[in-house]
Amino acid sequence: MKLSKEAVLARANAVCKNTLMETLDIEIIDFGDDFILGKMPVTSKVYQPDGVLHGGATAALAETMGSFAVQILMHNKDVFVRGIEISANHLKSVKEGFVYARAVYLHKGRTTQLLEIRVTDDHDNLISLCKLTTIALPKSK
């Protein structure tokens, strides 16, 4: 039985309870055949001491979207996904609003995956460009 998009999003967001994703208010808001999109509010909770978005919070958003992209878009419930390397180039500061992370595949292997995650602001300005390598491993039976 194939779940509706709304059901997949609800299920994905539900597993984020009591995790870093809930702490940072990260929400998965859309996905398609080749992408996943999430958002995070820019508030003092994710600031550096000087009042702008912390690069570590941005990287957490990017890794979250990349890992969920693999989990949702691979359509394989028999694996768990782990990030094994992330890089982030931070290009612009943000003080308010939301940042959006759109993850797309660069390589979609059965075991390893490479994703590009573009983080933008409310005005579609590029904030950070991230690359994430993940590994999909079989769940223990």
From TrEMBL:
InterPro entries, sorted: HotDog_dom_sf, PAAI_dom, Thioestr_dom
Gene3D superfamilies documented for this protein: Hotdog Thioesterase (3.10.129.10)
Gene Ontology CC: cytosol
Keyword Ribonucleoprotein: no
All copies of domain Thioesterase, residue ranges: 51-126
Pfam families in the record: 4HBT
SUPFAM superfamilies, per the entry: Thioesterase/thiol ester dehydrase-isomerase (SSF54637)
GO molecular function, a single term: 1,4-dihydroxy-2-naphthoyl-CoA thioesterase activity
Keywords, sorted A to Z: Hydrolase
Family of this protein: Belongs to the thioesterase PaaI family.
Protein name: Thioesterase
Organism the protein comes from: Pseudotamlana carrageenivorans
Organism lineage: Bacteria, Pseudomonadati, Bacteroidota, Flavobacteriia, Flavobacteriales
